From TrEMBL, chains A, B:
Family annotation (Pfam families): PALP
Domain Tryptophan synthase beta chain-like PALP as annotated: residue spans: 23-303
Cofactor annotation: pyridoxal 5'-phosphate
Domain of life: Bacteria
UniProt organism field: Actinomadura rugatobispora
Protein name as it appears in the record: Threonine/serine dehydratase
InterPro entries: Ser/Thr_Dehydratase, TrpB-like_PALP, TrpB-like_PALP_sf
Keywords: Lyase, Pyridoxal phosphate
Amino acid sequence: MQETRLDTARIRAARQVIDPIFLDTPLYRCEALEPVLGCAVSIKLETANPVRSFKARGTELVASLLAGRAAVCASAGNLGQALAWSGRGRGLDVTVVASRFAPAAKLDRIRALDARLELVDGDFDMARERAAAIARSDGIRLVEDSLDIETCEGAATIGLELVDAAPPFDAVLIALGGGALATGVGHVVKTWAPGVEVICVQPLGAPAMTHSWHQRRVVTTDSTDTIADGVAGRRPIPAVLDDLLVVADDAVLVREESIVAGMRMLLDHAGLVVEPSAALGIAAILEDRDRFADRHVATIVCGGNVDMDAYHRWVGARS
Amino acid sequence: MQETRLDTARIRAARQVIDPIFLDTPLYRCEALEPVLGCAVSIKLETANPVRSFKARGTELVASLLAGRAAVCASAGNLGQALAWSGRGRGLDVTVVASRFAPAAKLDRIRALDARLELVDGDFDMARERAAAIARSDGIRLVEDSLDIETCEGAATIGLELVDAAPPFDAVLIALGGGALATGVGHVVKTWAPGVEVICVQPLGAPAMTHSWHQRRVVTTDSTDTIADGVAGRRPIPAVLDDLLVVADDAVLVREESIVAGMRMLLDHAGLVVEPSAALGIAAILEDRDRFADRHVATIVCGGNVDMDAYHRWVGARS
């Protein structure tokens, strides 16, 4: 494999720094999903922890380096919550910049964890600009999701837990947003289990990184239109794209209705409440059953922070 | 502590026999629940595994002893599913007897796991009689939940994971049905962390074991009336009551509306879909906030197998 910015020794060492509450998350076959999906499906569950997403694996590394100082990050919600949690425990003063359109559930948790929260009247990429401006004016550390290596290598510890699985998987489906999760997990999988297909999944309504991957150059979009708020970026980071080109075997786009169908399946057949980004893997199977037929696929359920009103609207009220 | 039927060395050894997929389950503070409950709450999550309940910890032990043979059990649904799963992997021929009123979700999973399923036109205690009759007539092993020591010592491995937690809890809330979970976890907690209060929780509509504990003798009831199907027994087993008298500090009864409120809170604030029995701990806090005020309470979310139609009816459709 070509080099990436990630380092396997650092990824192994990260396990010693990350609070164990975020490590060794459940990984299990979910046979109740399989008749509908036509393949063997294993769930890697990243929602059963204090911040209900995988992001704390990265923020634990960030906060351990910055203990006693101050940092600012832009966040779609999950990174901010995770950095607030890690910062609180390690004496890091945290400011989070988010879109005012981010789910209230995510914003409420950031506030509850004692972080300063600033809202911008725009999307995630506008929050990124504002966070950078705060870092410059206040002279504090800017934590950039997917660009900062700790966010990628923290996520990569999920990969360590996946490649240890027996029997091995045929493919791993990874939600693609900024790219920390995909490059992190992809790096480890391609290093230790190169035969496992690494497939990134993004919504059709937020396709910038997927288009970039296929065209092998950064492609931006003017807007996004998806319920998968956690992965809705418009401006891929060049260094992250470079890594993704090394570690991903494919990047696919899925429709909104498939994401909703995936969320509903995870609720009805697996008892899991997930945010839209976490259903991207199931959506990819639903859209291309032939590709996965009779294979064993692992999908990372990467987050469960969702506004319940919106959630019930999506998965459909029953009575 | 007085002796119970459980043995600490066997409980430690059990960890070597149980498939690791059922061990070291998530244990985490859930701060989003705490403003409403008025105390610190940690969740021990036993639903993120292939059978969505803690019962496989026990059936793994049973199946390891009976590999290649045949067994029958009565089940409210979760034990049967777990025994079917463990049996399939270890060449054990499994028959499950259940009430035809058990949740369809549980019965469907038992069938899907290749167990023989026989339904009785009565409740769990009638299923127990029928299972015993099958064992006698077929000359096969009867697996009796809570009476068979493997079911208690398997559940007790949850206790090992709880007493290792730092900081320690002030109290552990345990769903009480037949008593395997309560005696198992209670035995370990009282052995290694005797200062932690062990509180069993049962529905007012199925109070036989709780009444028995308070009166220190077996008290049966003629019927049960609760949505918490997993704990709805009428005839406590004397040997299990004896153990429970040693390890439990208290046994409390909760109302149906509190169970529903607990399920709703776990959904809205923790993103967890749980069956009614798994909400008993939260229900107990809701009914006696003063008792738990400012203490740190652990509650075992013991199962998530629920008919989704009933679930949505209970927690309330939203749109």
